[in-house]
Amino acid sequence: MSALMDATAQKKRKRDSADEVGGERNCEIERGAFWYEDGNIVLVAEGKGFKVYRGILSQLSVVFRDMFSLPQPADADLHEGCPVVCMSDSAQDLLYFLSALHDFESKYFNTSEDLTFDEVSAMLRLGSKFEVERIKAEAIRRFKLCFPMLLEDFMTADTVCMLREYADETRYYASTACGISLSLGDCRAVINLARSFNLEYLLPAAFYACAQIPTEQLVLPKYGRIIGGASWVLSSEDLVLCLNLKEWLNLTLRENIADCLETVGESWSDCDNSGPNPCMELKNRILFRLSRVNIGTSALLDDAILEDEPLPIDFCGACTSDCRDAYEESRQATWTKLRERFDPPRVQSVEGRDPEVG
Question: What is the pTM for the complete model shown?
């Protein structure tokens, strides 16, 4: 008797969620923001439906093409006479992906228009999942602009300005020069994306950006970003890497400034400071302050950092020029060392020789 009642209840629930029309089951779906009235298939994510064109999906994605080639069950759900496919992706991710998929002339491929991080992240993740190369490639192109391999590309005027204001986590990139409007906190998710999709060349710049985030916000899960319905926080291994990097950058910046200050007064014949505070005396004052203040982790900023408190340099023209040149050389060396931290180990042959060397 109980089994019969359960079976009757199940049938009632099915009737409540789907109506029989002409022998076909029509399920109730909330219309999403992307809906073509003449579409012929409905993709559903988180209860929201997106009515699109099966032919376009099949043409641009081998994954969809293979999916649609499978025979459909006789009792498959329909909506307005169209097959319904339930997706595991978030509704927002699916909206971004379908918007890019159905319009290659849209903002998603406009090189002069910024996209949000959530949009580009969805393009990378779903473009990879459904093997739509153009969408995936466009996402990677934008990420490479924000996290490049060359220091001169990374530390542009926009980057310098916004990374120097790291106390405001809403600021990182917001310029058409890079194509993504990023917050500093998004850089944690960039590291996870780089790990997941073999984009290791993004890691040095992404880790440097993460090192500018206050330690509390790096460590506590509550500061993790929610992307695609999931919380993105650094893995335990990457968190340790980032914390170690913060310490290394702080020490390196201190050393770089101290080294560039040591050039002051090396050539007395060039020094033209004859005022009450000659260059050597001023240098010693700055070195004294340097040993007692926290100067942060911005070891890749250009020599404008030498103008900031507590280290404003006010040497003569010759000594200032020498100091700035020495600092720029140290900054370039810091970038090289940072990249080496993430380079894969070189493969050695049995004889111990580099296999790429003849």
Answer: 0.81
